[in-house]
Amino acid sequence: MFRREFDELSVEHPNFKAYYTITRPIMGEAAEHVGRIDAEYVRSFTHPEKSVFYIAGPPAMVQELSQQLMQKLSVSGGRIRTEKFTGH
């Protein structure tokens, strides 16, 4: 939804990097990752001990990923920012 803006931020701010994933792609859609975002996927491109995580999406996804980050990657709750989108 905000790919253009995130790509611009990546150019302007070297410490910002957006990663794109699609859970269920439609024929022809391309993404860096296909499937759900989970702790192992996050670990593959971050330094969990140094990162601040921003999670936005459906409430169940936000809750699940937040719990995985805390339990599997030992991320403190203070380094996880969330926004739950309902009705989508």
UniProtKB/TrEMBL annotation:
UniProt cross-references to Pfam families, sorted A to Z: NAD_binding_1
Domain Oxidoreductase FAD/NAD(P)-binding: 2-64
GO MF annotation terms: oxidoreductase activity
SUPFAM superfamilies associated with the record: Ferredoxin reductase-like, C-terminal NADP-linked domain
Transmembrane segments: none
InterPro entries the record matches: FNR_nucleotide-bd, OxRdtase_FAD/NAD-bd
Protein name in the entry: Oxidoreductase FAD/NAD(P)-binding domain-containing protein
Native source species: Candidatus Marsarchaeota G2 archaeon ECH_B_2
